[in-house]
Amino acid sequence: MHSYRPAPVLEALGVCSEDEQLYRALLARPESTTIDLSRDTGWPANRVGRHLKSLLSLGLASRTTGRPARYVPAVPEAAVELLALRKQAAIVEARLGASVLTTEFRRPDSSTVIRGAEAVAQRFYQAQQSAQTEVLLLDRSPYVVLPIEPRRAHGVSYRTIYDLASLSEPGDLMAARSAGCRILREVPIKLVVVDRRTGLLPTSPDVVVELGASSLLDALLRLFELLWQQASPLSPAASEGPLSYDDQQLLALAAAGLTDQAIARRLGVAQRTVERRMQRILKALDATTRFQAGLRAGQRGLLV
Questions:
Q1: Which end of the chain has a smaller Cβ tally under 10 Å, C or N?
Q2: Is pTM beyond 0.85 here?
Q3: All domains of the chain, ordered by start, with CATH?
Q4: Is 158 a residue whose pLDDT tops 90?
């Protein structure tokens, strides 16, 4: 083991020095096992396992399906870009929180507070019906009113980001397959923005702040675009090349961070079916890991 330890470079993006040290060890020896990493770092196996879980959650590593489990580092450029996007989203979310507090304190003319479940439901419906060009939605539970169903009027486009936990049943996933839908592990707030000039921001189960043109609405729009970049598509491209439509959908869910068990539950199939199809996808894309398969599918436009 070398005595020299390079200075950490990822701390600004929320990666602790020990996580980065293990990530560097993976970069030096891709497809390492826990035993390999324990030997390379001099750490006990339980310490290696703890930091491997952290790397997986950060998107800095992926795990192969065979035994013994091997770990593959994410491509540094892609991994750092994802971490940076998350950091930007956190900053925008913090600013948004401050703006909400300011709104509650000042009650500017550009906002209106709507109270009561019936009034809230009616305003959500009216806002949808009045859309002329675009509706943006951040969708998460709990639902006090039913989620907005896209009004497929001519010229009105919808973009929806679903919270992973809100898609608990296969039927939910089928409803979310339409174009303009993406999935994110954690959607921070519920939001509807109509034509980029009216925003509906729930602050409690039966209270909604309606926003007109304001710096807060601008911040919400920036937050939506940042989250859209991070979210994974739920509407795969037309079935072309080596992947079928179902394969593309499975890969999109895997890219969103779902386990095989969670994917099987959402697709309504057996876990062994998911594992078998994933092996076929890896072979079709000439990839050794899911992360690599996701990158190659994205480069070839199969998940757009």
A1: N
A2: no
A3: 11-73 (1.10.10.10), 80-233 (3.30.870.10), 236-299 (1.10.10.10)
A4: no
